[in-house]
Amino acid sequence: MAGFWTPRLIMTQGYCEYTCSLCGSVCPTGAITDITAREKIERPIKIGSVYVDRGRCLPWSGNAPCIVCEEVCPTSPKAIYLKKETVSRPGGKKLAVQLPFVDLKQCVGCGICENKCPVKGLPAIRTISAGESRSLKNQILLL
Q1: 28-32 — which CB contacts under 8 Å span 24+ positions?
Q2: Is the sign of the CA dihedral 1, 13, 114, 21 positive or negative?
Q3: pLDDT of 74-108, one tens digit each?
Q4: Which of 1, 6, 66, 71 has the most CB atoms lying inside 10 A of its own CB?
Q5: What is the predicted pLDDT for the residue at 15?
């Protein structure tokens, strides 16, 4: 019962709009702080981080070129950046691709990349709560 009525983000169904701050204004308990869109971007407020599952990612697995996650990333500078590489396709044929990488210092965990990932089923890029602004216990060690 402890989690009953607790909001939960399912990024494959919807994501956190980068400039939206409505959740804080409608939260009945005050558990989500009411902030402005400007505060959300300038701080920035992080609700998590993303990681690339290289076994499912189309360019990393050598199955096809894809740059969707970088294109939809709303942060400036982008939290997802690309590096041009040549990978081996299944069967040994070479394929020129742009491999996605995540800059965790820029990522706010909005989940747009996960939502828009063209890989069906379990997306190739996924959002986790690690790195969120609210919890010092749930941080990612960045050097």
Answers
A1: 32/7
A2: negative
A3: 999 999 999 999 988 878 889 899 999 999 999 99
A4: 66
A5: 94
